[in-house]
Amino acid sequence: HIVNIDISQVVIDQMSHKFSGRSGVEFLQMDATAMSFQSGSFDAVLEKGTLDAMYTGSRESIRKVVAEVFRVLRPGGVFASLSFGIPETRTELNATGLGSEWSEFRSVELDHASDAAPSTSNRLPDFEGEEGRVYYLYLMTKPS
Question: pLDDT confidence of 112, banded at 50, 70, 90?
Answer without folding.
Answer: low
